[in-house]
User: Fold this.
Amino acid sequence: MPTVYFVIPCYNEEEVLPETSKQLTAKLDSLKEKGLIDDKSRVLLVDDGSKDKTWELIEKLNAENAYFEGVKLAHNRGHQHALLAGLETAAPRCDCAISLDADLQDDVNALDEFIVKFNEGCDVVYGVRNKRETDSVFKRSTAQGFYRVMKALGVDIVFNHADYRLMSRRALEALSEYKEVNLFLRGIVPLIGYRSDYVYYDRHERFAGESKYPLKKMISFAIDGITSFSVRPLKLISNLGIIISILSVFGLIYALVSFFMGVAVAGWTATVASIWFLGGLQMLSIGVVGGYIGKIYSEVKSRPRYKIETFLKNETDKGQNKE
Ligand code: UDP
Ligand code: MG
Assistant:
């Protein structure tokens, strides 16, 4: 039976924590009964610098309920960093950790299946949303558009998967080796590799409190995701520069023809030709500089370059097999 940690980032969640803790306690009881988790399994609540009574509630839960543990961050660092803090705290104490949201929008009934998949040997299990009925049309279409753009830019992410996922201890240890500051977990986890599988679930509505992800945060999260995983926008500038430089040749021909036909005003030909040409040249130059910045950027991230999945040792002496 594995020791499972349920890691939950909480930011100003005083309205939902009482209900969440009740549901989770019931869930952990039932998981234990079914023999899916052992006695050392815990719920780890990470207070992401909340301004309300969240931490007091966590302290209370910790005192009264044997399942609950808490971590308090010094200040608000955002969902992704709070999650990472929780996962790294959990790693040495568990066999696997499952991350979920404090509002239980991620269906807790899917938890059994995550653990079953882990027992079957998966290191990473992604929770994937069945449908997006509970979202507003706006949130749904922007989210879908985001996944498409990410895919088009060559970022390997799982469609309709947020941060509801299980990671084994060794996957968590591998995650710790990604030292980047611009954290975008759902882009990093697929890079870790290892055997993975999916669990499908329906996402509920938040039952109390407000979303802590207003549009502004969502946009900056999306931009972060793209710029942390792709240097293609830089290449795009280069390509655009090349195209405009080529077009400038036609612009030049056009300007010259107008000049010789005598339809151009004095000075127009030179001005137009140089605008096109210089514009293209400038863009191309920015693109070249961008190419180098892209390289510096990837180096500075100093991500681990590989991860060995299994190592087939063969420690028998050469002589031993002879008989
Ligand atoms: N959260 C956090 N720090 C933040 C914002 C959000 O730890 O700065 C947590 C929040 O408490 C919740 C999870 O991240 O557990 C997801 O947030 P929310 O439910 O508000 O986002 P939504 O589901 O609307 O995308
Ligand atoms: Mg939510």
